[in-house]
Specification:
35% of the residues lie in helices and 24% in strands. The chain has 4 helices and 5 strands; from the N terminus they run H-H-E-E-E-E-H-E-H. The chain has a 5-stranded antiparallel β-sheet. The protein is α+β, with helices and mostly antiparallel strands. It has helices spanning 6-19, 23-41, 106-109, 116-124, and strands spanning 46-52, 58-66, 69-78, 84-87, 112-113.
C-alpha cells in the first residue's frame, strides 16, 4: 500500500483506535482514502456545486467523474457560527460527520452551480459564505 504523510497516518491510526476498527475495517478505510486521494489528484472531469441547508450551513462540493458517476472528493461545510468542516482524503470523517459516500446528483440535492475558483476561494478562506 502507498504511504500517506505522517500526520494523515497518525490521524487515521487514532481514529481506528478510538472507534475500535478491526484490521479488515482499517484496510477498507485505507483503500477508500487511497481512491479519494487518487481521484483528487487526477485529471478526470470535475464539477462543483453548493447549497445552504436549513440550519444555515453552506455546503460546497467538488466531485470527479469516475465509473459513470460523480464521486465527491472534497466537501466543505461553513456554519453561521464560523465552524468549518472539511472532508477530503486526509480526513474522510471525524466525530461530527464524514465525506458523503453518495454519488453527487445536482438535481436531487438541489445544488446550485459553483465555479472551481469559488470553491477553492471558500476552501482556502474560512470567511467566505454562500449566504453572506
Amino acid at each position: 500500500m502507498s504511504s500517506f504523510p505522517d500526520d494523515v497516518e497518525a490521524y487515521y491510526a487514532q481514529l481506528a483506535e478510538r472507534r475500535g476498527w478491526s484490521p479488515e475495517t482499517m484496510a477498507a478505510i485505507r483503500s477508500t482514502v487511497e481512491l479519494i486521494r487518487d481521484l483528487d489528484r487526477g485529471t478526470a472531469p470535475r464539477t462543483y456545486g453548493a447549497l445552504a441547508d436549513d440550519e444555515g450551513t453552506d455546503w460546497l462540493y467538488e466531485a470527479v467523474w469516475h465509473e459513470r458517476e460523480w464521486v465527491v472528493v472534497r466537501q466543505l461545510g461553513a456554519a453561521e457560527d464560523g465552524t468549518l468542516t472539511r472532508y477530503w482524503w486526509q480526513r474522510l470523517e471525524d466525530d461530527e460527520g464524514m465525506l458523503t459516500d453518495q454519488a453527487l446528483d445536482r438535481d436531487e440535492w438541489g445544488l446550485r452551480p459553483l465555479s472551481r475558483e469559488d470553491f477553492y476561494t471558500a476552501w482556502d478562506d474560512p470567511g467566505w459564505s454562500l449566504t453572506a
